[in-house]
What we know:
It is built from 15 helices and 11 strands. Helix 8 links the parallel strand 7 (about 260-265) and strand 8. Helix 2 packs antiparallel against helix 3 (about 50-60), helix 9 (about 300-320) packs across helix 11 and helix 9 crosses helix 12 (about 375-395). It is globular and about 65 Å long. The chain has an 11-stranded mixed beta sheet with strand order 1-3-2-4-6-5-10-11-9-7-8, sandwiched between helices. By secondary structure, it is an alpha/beta fold. The protein has a single domain, classed as Amidase signature (AS) domain (Amidase signature (AS) enzymes, Alpha-Beta Complex). The structure holds glutamine.
Amino acid sequence: MTNLKISALDYVEQIQNGNISAEDFVSETVDRIKKVDDTLHAFLSVNDDVIEQARAIDKKIKSGDKVGACYGMPISIKDNMCIKGSKTTCASKMLENFVAPYDATVITKLKQQDAVFIGKVNMDEFAMGLTTEFSAYGPSKNPWNTDCIPGGSSGGSAVSVSAFECVTSLGSDTGGSVRNPASFCGVVGYKPTYGLISRYGLISYANSIEQIGPLTRTVKDSAFMLNMICGLDSNDNTTVDNNSEDYLSGIDSGIEGKKIGIIKEMIADGTDPAVLSSTKDAISKLESLGAICEEISIDMVKYSVAAYYTITATEAGSNLARYDNLRYGYDFPVEGYEFNSYIAKARKNFGPEVTRRMIIGGFVPSAGHAGKYFLKAMKVKSKLTKEVNEAFKKFDLLIAPTVPILPFKLGEKIDDPVSLFLVDINTVTANLTGKPAISVPFAISNGLPIGMQLFANSMNDKLLLQAAHALENTVKLPEVPI
Ligand code: GLN
């Protein structure tokens, strides 16, 4: 039996040493999915040619040909990233039969590195939500407690990594969708600086703030994945040049002498006592490693959730306008409808959360209302960015719990969108300001994971990963019970 619980870097090492073969690893991963995924429902589709793909990579290794750095590693992909010839549904009925005609840039890069795409994983419809309950294909379950939500929107990604159904995964993070499920499922979730990874081929929700990011078992694996997928892309003009930085080098350097700001507004009233005590514990562990921790106030955090939902709904409203049953959908013929009734019928293919966002997204930037809502939200965004930039003049890093509460029961908040929105209070700031942030599994309370979040200034991803690695080394968590 192959050990499916190894990290991505261990996988690479074991393949290089000839201890395991890609074919064995991938076929046992497929068996594992068959065994646990009826319960967990991380996957929306599993590719049927993965074993042949792995075999082809083994052949390359044996014959001494050049092999990509992933060596046939099974990776799951959130179902909002295009893989040519594969279904890309965004967990929506609207794209039920959509087959992507091209590869996203991250997919092209991973193909060049000989990754094996084991399958597409579940998410909230069009990445709107944080529980996966808004998937049109049913929710995923938290492997730590299957009565609980796994977080979202990249819930399938987090579950698949946590339950050993793949080695790593790619998710997308518009307001926390990589970090939130990572925190709830006990894995690492990393949102890089805006622009570090191309969004070409990621189906847009709110382009101005979202990023693709890895979900992994270790921080080093996140650095490895960033090395694989980052870089300038002529297909995405928001990408930035990182001068071919190697994010693994120097990752063991520790955090001695680093100044870390504890964001007061992110440990406010309503934070679960277990999350509070973990935060205190994380701070004292960082201090014992030589960091200097001090509280800081970032006042605009108070308005960040309101600004986030106003801005993202506006962008979603225009991004989702293309789903009109002409370009996508093809559900019914156009004859016999006038414009409004036609569009209304076409949009019935959207679930309740997407519908809500589209209605808000039509209203908040509209003539007569924009000043009160959209423009105000944009002002909050720039004030927040200013405050965070100020904070980084004084501190190297910032810290806060990833989510103020523990994973809750499936169905518990589904009918209360506002209480769901508020769960994002600690994650949206990184997106609104473009800063990198990472969630590290830090504690278990009542059998449920708690993630700790670190932030760094733009393009300081290397330092962020270095600090996150130091933090993860201070704890040893039990294994997921599935
Ligand atoms: N919960 C947030 C939302 O629903 C975040 C989603 C995300 O990051 N994609 O918009």
